[in-house]
Every structure is written in C-alpha cells, then in structure tokens.
Amino acid sequence: MAPTSAPTSSAATDVSDDLTQSRLGAMTYDPAPESAAIVTFRDAYGLFIDGRFTDPSSHDSFATINPATETVLARVALASASDVDVAVKAARRAYETTWSKLSGAQRAKYLYRIARLIQERSRELAVAETLDNGKPIRESRDVDVPLAAAHFFYYAGWADKLEFAGYGAKPTALGVAGQIIPWNFPLLMAAWKLAPALAAGNTCVLKPAETTPLTALLLAEILQQADLPPGVVNIITGDGTTGSALVDHPGVDKIAFTGSTEVGRLIQERVAASHKGLTLELGGKGANIVFEDAPVDEMIEGIIDGIFFNQGHVCCAGSRLLVQESIADDVLRRLVRRVDQLRVGDPLDKNTDVGAINSAAQLARINELAAYGEHEGATRYTSTCVLPDKGYWFAPTVFADVAQSHRIAREEIFGPVLSVLTFRTPDEAVAKANNTKYGLACGVWSEKGSRTLWVAQRLRAGVIWANTYNRFDPTSPFGGVRESGFGREGGRHGLEAYLDVH
Amino acid sequence: MSTERLEVRKTFKLLINGAFPRSESGRTYEVTAASGTFLANVAQASRKDVRDAVVAARAAQASWWSQSAYHRGQVIYRLAEMAESRRDELAEHVALSEGLRARASQLSVARAIDRVVWYAGWSDKIAQVFGGANPVAGPYFNFSLPVPSGVVGVIADQDSSLEAFVDAVCAPIAAGNAVVVLASEQRPTPAVLLGEMTATSDVPSGVLNILTGRTGELAPTLCAHEDVDGVDLSGVNEAFADELALLAAGSIKRVLRPGRGDASLARLRAFLETSTVWHTIGQ
C-alpha cells in the first residue's frame, strides 16, 4: 500500500490513504481461541429414530469434516430409503399414540424444556457448530444458538394457544412432517423447523445437511434429556438420496424444505401430484439499497454484515449493493477499506469475522462465479488478508462496475462476494432491486422514513430491513416471494405451515 | 311477414386488458344450453391470448395494488351494483347453462352478487386480519403486512358458472392481485356477462381478464407461464390438477388445490404474501 495523504481523484482504485493514516491496517491481534475441547463428538453416530440412536440398515456411513482444517470430526450414518421408512413409521406411531393425545399445555412444556437445555448447553453447541460448519464462534455463540433456543421458547407458548392464532377455532396438526434443512445455519434451521411443527402438534422426521449433521445429533441427545416421547422427532442423516426418499414417502403429510431454488423446484414437482403440504424457503439475491442520505457508518457496517455474515452463506444475504450514484465512489472506497480490515481465519478465534467456506464444492462454486465476474468485466477488489493453508477459504471480495446482466448480479453466489451496482432515482432502485427471479430479502438505507416506506412498499421481497440487515427473531415471519419460495417461518404466520388450515 | 321485433343477439367475446376482443386466432366454438339447444358461438382463446392476458394483468397489478384499500373495496362493490341491475340477464344464462329452473338460477345469482359484496368488504380488512406487529427482541419496529402475490391464474369451476367463478376471481382481486381466468368451457356465458359489467364498474383494465376456450388447451400455458405468481386449480378435477401443479412448480408458483378452496378465507390467504419490515428505532 502506498502511504499517501493526498486526495485522489479515482478514490476507488486507491483506498489506502485513510487506512494508513489511521494505522488500523497495521494493527494485529493476538489469537483468542475458544477451546475445541468443550465439545466431545462420538467417533460415529447412528440414526436417531424412535428415541434412540440406531444403526442404518445398510451400515453405510460418511465422514463429516471441519472445513477450516479438513480433519474428520466424526462419522455419521447414511440413511437409506428403508431407514427413512422406519423413521416415518416411528413418527406416525408417535403421532397417533402419544403426541396427538397430549394437551397443548403438555406439548408446550416439552418445548420449554428443549429451549432451556439448549441454553444450558449453549457453549458446547456453539463450538460444535463452528467446528462442523466453519462459521466464526462469535456468530454461532451470539446468533445461531441463542436464536435456536429462542425459537423453541417462542413456539412453546403457542402450543396451548393455537385457537387464538387466526386459523380457525379448532386448528389441527397435519400429521408427520418431513423436514430438510441446509448447512448454513444447521442448529438454527433445525429449531426453525421443529419448534413450530411440534407446537402445532405434528411429529417430525428431520434430515440435516450432509456436511453439517453434528449439532442436529447433539440436539437429539437434548431431546433424550428432555424425555421427549420416542418417535416424536426422528433425525436421519444422509445425502440427497435420503432427502429424496423422505420427499417421496407416502406416509409424510407435509414437506418443509430450506435450500436452493433448484432443489426446491424438484421437490415441488415431486409432491405436485400428492396431497402433501409444502413450504419452501429457497435462494435469494437480496438488494441492499443505499440512498445518499443514509447514516454512513451504520450503512457501511450494515453492508458488510449483509454480505459477509456467515461467509455470505445466507439465503437472504445482501449480495447486490445498489448505491445512489452521487455517493457511489465514497461508499465503495469505505467499503473496500472495511473489507480489508475483516479478520479472516480460525473460526474458533473469538476475534474472527469471516470463517471457512463450508465445503470444497461450495468453494468451487464461489470461485467459478467470481472468475465469471472478472470475465464479464466487473472490477474486483479482494481483501489482502492471509488465508490459512489448510481448509476451504475465500477472501472477502467486492465487485464494482457490475451490470444487471452479469452472472454475479443474477445468480446466488452463496459466498463472501458483493456485487455493486448504482442507481439515480428511487424508481430506478426499485426496478433494479426487483429485477430478479428471487424475492427473499432487501435492505433500504436512508434517514428519510417516508422514502424508506415508499421503497419497502414496492419491493417484491418477504423481508425488508430498514437501516439494518440480517436481523432475525422468532416472532418475525421469515420467507420469500416468487422463486424464493412460499410459506413463512417465525411468528404467528409460521404456524400456518404446520396446521390443517382450510 | 311478422311484425314482431327481431332480437339483437350478442357475440360473446374475451376480456383482455379492458377490451373485448375476439380471439386473435379467429376461432370460436359452439356452446349449448344444458338442454342441448344452441346458446352461443363463443370466442375460443388461443395460447397467445393467454400470454397477452398475462402481460395485461402484470401491467395492471401494480397500479391496482397502489390504490387505497378503501378505493379497491368501492370498485368491487360497484361491480355488485352493476350485477344487481342485470340480475335477470345473469339468471337467464345461469339457468340455460346449468339447466336450473328460474327460481333456482335467481337464487344462485343473488348468492353470487352477495359474495361480490362480501369480498368488497374484505379489501380494507385483510391487512388487519392477516398482518400485525411483531415484538422482536431489539430496538426495531417490526411489522408484517399481507401483500398480493401478483398475477393469479384461475381455472374456473366447470359446473358452477357464476357462483364459483365469483369466489375464484373476487378473492384474489380483493387481495390486490390481477387475475387471468379461464371460464368454464361449456358454461362460459355468465362469466362473460360479469366481465362486461367490470367495464362499467371502474375495475381498471387488465385487473380481471376472462378467457373462454378449451380448458385442456389453455390451462397448461397459463400454469406454466413464468410471469404468473400463483394458480387456483380448485375448479379442476384431481388428475388434471396434478398435471397442472407439476407445470406450476417450474417457477415455484403458489398453488391452490382442489378441495382446499371451499372456504373463502383459504382463498383470500392463498395468494397473499407476508412482507415483514424491520425499521430501526432510535433517537
């Protein structure tokens, strides 16, 4: 970096001036690692069916690794179609003999127990999540685990109040819910799926993601500690074939899926000719819209949080920055400087901002799309951070001069890559934000409340954050429109997915 | 030579973007009354007409939704007023189409018009009934609003020529959507009459588009169209609904299945999205 205090006309290409003056760039941090010894994984895990861990029928298993080090954490069972059948039958039995016979108040008490157990074991769960997923411990500790507990706590309270939820005087459960969750928030997604389903009176067969099964298996232990009746929740690890068998199983009354739009489309096709209920929480290409009067420091932090939170492995990530032309150069300059200050590395280090990419396959996808960004003519800024030798890593990256037709502006990258586009008028901002097949989340940054609400009214998105980004709460419905899926998770609205609503 | 006045017969046409065109294909098909006698030559819409109707609906939806809920309610109520004054004509066509006696058809029309009034009243209640504030743990004002899915394709009931038709189109329109509907293939004339009434009831052009034709030919195009956000298949038999639901999955459409659309609340809910806005609170 060239130390210079002279203002430069092309601010975007020389961003080092403020940085050097402030000496922030020269600051180093001592390691502050959380102890990996807090969690002890078993060497191998079976399938959690009917209240106990069982061996899969075929005795197949696969390894789950720490993406930051590529070391094996444990082996987990690979559930076949016949294992899925056993799990679904256990769930059906539990639904008919136990769970549907309990009062709402009793169901509530089990959910409250689970919430408390998650809180009690939160440190262990956070470390486990960071080891298996690669996300920074700061996030698993402060976001994933507390929110998972909060979801159980919130929906616990609904279990004995369903008649007040606005879905009829005597809303009933659907039966057995098949739930397939992604690898980006493994424990939190399990909570988002299980808590409302159980509160509404369903029993569940949950299939965690192939690369991140461990916290769901710890959750299975928690369910045992809570004395949840056997079969009410069954957790079957596996790969795409396992999920596919669950989707096709005739004994399942409802499928809830969170993942890519491509897989969501396949699932919708597969259940089209059935009477299974379906909710889909799919991909996104969220626009973060910045007006010239936005509060600068909050806005820069919000953009950073919007795209680099969880390495950008977030379906609602603010992966398209739409910045008003009058401030575009200044925003880009500040952004690139801030990106360079992000601490990338050991996910267990409490100071780490950006952790490891979850898998080699995902890293390959990010690399491919980032290369396309350069190929199609966008200007690339990549953090100068030093990446570890082992593991899967991608340095935080910002693309400027992005056109709407570029792949990096259209396709979900699901990684720490931000595409910057500009606009002049609110109308143009709305048009560009809506120029996508997705519709999950958007951000609006402005101090002018009337304009923020005007924009919010016109955005085709399920969630809109104004002067903030990536905020989640069990009381707040989350979910998309258009090809980002349908159905809501969270809040009173989240119950609808698991009730027989006519 | 008789001195009796010769009646002026009506040509039954499509309703696309506020106009009443024949099919761009020039095709018509013969519709008979339940008794088997000739009733009308009805426009036989083409797949191109479906696409034109979707374009019109998309263009109309944003401005329809941008009207105040109070205004939308008045427009739908106005449709009931128009239908009320043409009750006899509607009843005649319901009677012919469905083979009902005069009294039964008049009652059916009365129920249909009362349904229009019921939906008119919904337009400014939906946000309060389906939306609300969310008490999030943090300094945010957070509220969820029901918003329309956008463009809704409706395959109308084949038997109930007016009552079910009114339910299927008024629910999504009251919720702020624009609709492209395939009227009953063999009993289309009451729907066409109702469409004519929208021209004098301030329903903006393109908000309701009515096509007549071969359901088997047109429904797949409507259900596979990528600019359609949701489809109501509640008027379709199970086997055909399975086929159409598969096509709808291609662009992740919302699908209202047969048997789930009887209750009006489910209809209202089917093509509403929940939009949640978080706004910071601070000094």
Name the overall outline of chain B: globular
The whole-angstrom Rg of chain B is 20 Å
Structural class estimated from helices and strands of chain A: alpha/beta
- Principal-axes geometry of chain A comes out as globular
Structure commentary:
- The complex is a heterodimer of chains A (502) and B (283).
- With 502 residues, chain A is an alpha/beta fold.
- Helix content of chain A is 37%, strand content 16%.
- A five-stranded parallel β-sheet of chain B has the order 7-6-5-8-9, sandwiched between helices.
- Chain B contains ten helices and ten strands.
- Chain B is globular and about 85 Å long.
- In chain B, 44% of the residues lie in helices and 18% in strands.
- In chain B, helix 4 packs parallel to helix 6.
- The mean pLDDT of chain B is 95.
- In chain B, strand 8, helix 9 and strand 9 form a beta-alpha-beta unit.
- Chain B has 283 residues and is α/β, with parallel strands linked by helices.
- The longest helix of chain B has 21 residues.
- At the A-B interface, helix 9, helix 15, strand 17 and strand 18 of A face strand 4, helix 9 and strand 10 of B.
In short:
The complex is a heterodimer of chains A (502) and B (283). By secondary structure, chain A is α/β, with parallel strands linked by helices.
List the helices and strands and how they pair.
The complex is a heterodimer of chains A (502) and B (283).
Chain A: H1 16-22, E1 44-45, E2 47-49, E3 52-54, E4 61-66, E5 71-77, H2 81-97, H3 104-120, H4 122-133, H5 137-158, E6 176-180, H6 186-199, E7 203-207, H7 214-225, E8 233-235, H8 240-248, E9 254-258, H9 261-271, E10 277-281, E11 287-290, H10 296-308, E12 320-324, H11 328-341, H12 360-375, E13 379-382, E14 397-400, H13 407-410, E15 417-423, H14 426-433, E16 441-445, H15 449-458, E17 463-466, E18 485-486
Parallel strand pairs in A: 1-5, 6-7, 6-9, 7-8, 9-10, 11-12, 11-16, 12-15, 14-15, 16-17
Antiparallel strand pairs in A: 2-3, 4-5, 10-18, 13-14
Helix pairs in contact in A: 2-8, 3-5, 4-5, 5-6, 10-11
Chain B: E1 28-32, E2 38-43, H1 47-66, H2 69-85, H3 87-98, H4 102-122, H5 126-130, E3 132-133, E4 140-148, E5 151-155, H6 163-174, E6 178-182, H7 189-198, E7 208-211, H8 215-224, E8 230-232, H9 238-248, E9 254-256, H10 264-270, E10 272-280
Parallel strand pairs in B: 5-6, 5-8, 6-7, 8-9
Antiparallel strand pairs in B: 1-2, 3-4, 4-10
Helix pairs in contact in B: 1-8, 2-4, 3-4, 3-7, 4-6, 6-10, 8-9
